[in-house]
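An example makes the point: we print one protein in full, the chain in one-letter code, the fold tokenised, without further comment:
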Amino acid sequence: MSLITSLKASPLDIPMRKAFGIAGGAQELARNVLVELTVLSPGDALLGIGEGAPFPAFNGETQDIVLASCAKVDLVDVDLFDTATIRERLRDASPSARCAIETAVVDARARMKGATLQSYFGAANEAELVTDITITTGTVEDARREAKEFAAFSTLKIK
């Protein structure tokens, strides 16, 4: 049995190079939440890490809401692999809090098996991660310039 012994949530403020603007607003600082989940497994303790990314302009959540929501979740003495109990205890958590905690749980499960999250989910260990990039709100000229700057990306999201 691998028991969760603590769940800690703390602010994780990340400065952005440029304001991320969408129709509902913009943010210049990502006020995220870092979750650390400590698990006592036979003969060892390990840490699972997760992150919640509230964005008031998108989902109405703030960092304070997510921190308060995490504080209400009690997973102490729950087995790391007891998905039904974990799901039940997260039922009333905010979406970003749930994401952060669930990610920490999965991270802890992967670490327990000595795996990266990538290999835990069955993906090949690739040397490069392909993603997309967002061209945020602004002028047409800003969008044109950014589209040229981001030519290396195969997918551009336009706001």
Observations:
- The longest helix spans residues 95-112.
- DSSP finds six helices and five strands in the chain.
- The first strand starts at residue 3 and ends at 22.
- The chain has a mean pLDDT of 88.
